[in-house]
Design goal:
Blueprint: E1 13-17, H1 21-32, E2 36-41, E3 52-55, E4 58-61, E5 67-68, H2 72-81, E6 94-99, E7 107-112, H3 123-127, H4 134-139, H5 141-147, H6 155-158, H7 162-168, H8 173-188, H9 197-208, E8 217-218, H10 224-238, E9 242-245, E10 249-254, E11 260-264, E12 268-271, E13 273-276, H11 280-283, H12 294-299, E14 306-315, E15 324-327, E16 334-337, E17 360-366, H13 377-391, E18 400-412, E19 433-435, H14 448-464
Parallel strand pairs: 1-2, 1-13, 2-9, 6-15, 13-19
Antiparallel strand pairs: 3-4, 5-8, 6-7, 10-11, 11-12, 14-17, 14-18, 15-16, 16-17
Helix pairs in contact: 1-10, 1-14, 2-14, 8-9
């Protein structure tokens, strides 16, 4: 039985502004719902903060990203893109943690969950964690149990610092740096003590205290550009959506008869609805009058930004024998082996695609990297090459064949106390104009999962309003 849409039977035309994960997700969901979708991206490629570029034949991701078992929306997007098999998950949470040793040999710990239901699945590993004293290990259960009573949706929770809450629950400075920061800094992209308790609670309650597989780690086995951008362009093409790259939007103008005029450099686009899926600092000047209270849009500046810096080191020989490790008591945070994924690994003929057989490419991912955002590359090399040698003895005799740095100065909003009140919902006060992006009110931190959830929320809102079915055609009078 046929139905007509809220646009009177005509296929609704929707512009999605921003080709990151939020915009990609919204575009796919709306195209699947029957809308005429145009995805506009100012850059020459899709993917937003999760894309890749070529550097002298080497494929480099803008930043290192992982997924967790609890990232249900993001994993659902990978399924739609046909990419789930290229982001394999661990059979269970398993992280090697290294620290420099006084005798020159690195100290090592292994955090591996067992098969018990959460939250019991991590207790044995934490009880053996050698970087904490016995007293500190015994005290870990106190905040873990107390966290189950924390309500992330309570505004009072968001006004608290995570570090203050941990200290009040018996966690020393040492415990916070050597254990809790392992999870919070990389998830929230802010110094662990300074994070919003509400957002930290989402990480801890969902990832560590939830289902026993919630924190299991998946690492992409393809460059992010292929995993997200290329796969999304292919799927959107199959769904009949248009993708316009290098399309910078200068204004969104509501029309008297309904709908919007989206102004571009070369042409204007008339649509019934708009999904604005760009970072908050870019969304604010595009918001038409009356879309949100003025003070709300102005307040978005309070979300701020936190940088992520990636340090890339290519050695002339293998120095690390694990796919990734974490580090404590070191400027290094997380290190990933990107040899194969970058195209550096040996081909079947024994030669490297990059011309360097036998080399190994490591990427150090530095979250909350304010102190490194503007540090010269030479200074970073002076700092991080010795730091890697402290963690990997084989690096002491290896030569650094290449060293470079990538920086995302505005990688996420600054996930500090008080930001929950600044994050807007998907819907605005103008019909047909919705917001998306990991900075919006998703209930999640600014992560890939949050971005996908925001795109789904935007699509749900437009399905309810612009794409809402009316009575069946056969019953209309």
């Amino acid at each position: 039985m046929s139905t007509v849409s809220a646009t009177g039977g005509r296929t609704p035309r929707i512009a999605v502004i921003g080709g990151g994960l939020a915009g990609i997700t919204a575009s796919i969901a709306l195209a699947e719902s029957g809308a005429d979708v145009t995805l506009l991206e100012a850059r020459p490629r899709l993917g937003g903060a999760t894309c890749s570029f070529s550097r002298d034949g080497l494929t480099v991701d803008t930043s290192q990203h992982i997924l967790l078992g609890c990232c249900s929306a993001y994993r659902g997007l990978l399924d739609k893109l046909g990419m789930a098999g290229h982001a394999p998950m661990q059979d269970r949470f398993d992280v090697t943690v290294l620290a420099p040793g006084a005798d020159g040999q690195p100290r090592k710990a292994r955090l591996r969950r067992n098969a018990l239901p959460g939250p019991l699945h991590m207790l044995a590993a934490l009880g053996r964690y050698p970087f904490l004293s016995l007293t500190e290990r015994m005290s870990v259960s106190r905040p873990a149990l107390a966290m189950r009573r924390v309500n992330p949706a309570d505004p009072a929770t968001d006004r608290q610092r995570f570090g203050d809450w941990l200290a009040a629950h018996g966690q020393t400075e040492r415990s916070r740096r050597l254990l809790w920061d392992l999870f919070s800094v990389s998830s929230l992209n802010i110094a662990g003590d300074d994070a919003s308790l509400a957002l930290a609670a989402v990480v801890v309650k969902t990832g560590l205290l939830g289902k026993n597989n919630a924190a299991d780690i998946g690492v992409p086995a393809l460059p992010l550009g292929e995993l997200h951008g290329d796969a999304a362009a292919t799927l959107l093409g199959k769904l009949g959506a248009r993708v316009s790259l290098g399309a910078k939007v200068s204004a969104i103008e509501p029309q008297d008869g309904g709908g919007y005029l989206v102004r571009l450099a070369d042409e204007d686009l008339t649509v019934d609805a708009v999904v604005l899926a760009v970072p908050h600092e870019k969304a604010a000047p595009l918001m038409p009058p009356g879309a949100l209270p003025g003070q709300t849009v102005a307040a978005w500046a309070g979300l701020g930004a936190s940088p992520i810096v990636n340090v890339h080191v290519i050695y002339d020989r293998p120095v690390m024998d694990l796919p990734f490790v974490a580090a404590v008591d070191s400027p290094v945070q997380w290190v990933f082996d990107r040899t194969r994924i970058s195209g550096l690994s040996a081909s079947k003929h024994g030669a490297s695609k990059h011309g360097r057989p036998g080399h190994q490419y490591l990427a150090i991912s530095l979250s909350a990297a304010d102190q490194y955002a503007d540090t010269p590359v030479a200074r970073l090399q002076e700092l991080f090459v010795p730091a890697l040698a402290e963690l990997f003895p084989a690096a002491r005799d290896a030569n650094v064949a290449e060293f470079f740095v990538t920086r995302e100065r505005r990688a996420t909003f600054r996930q500090a106390p008080g930001t929950a009140a600044l994050r807007p919902p998907a819907a605005t006060q103008r019909p047909g104009l919705v917001l998306a992006g990991a900075w919006t009110d998703t209930g999640w931190p600014d992560t890939m999962e949050g971005a996908v959830r925001s795109g789904l929320a935007a699509a749900v809102e437009l399905r309810r309003t612009v794409l809402k079915p009316t009575s069946p055609i056969g019953e209309r009078q």
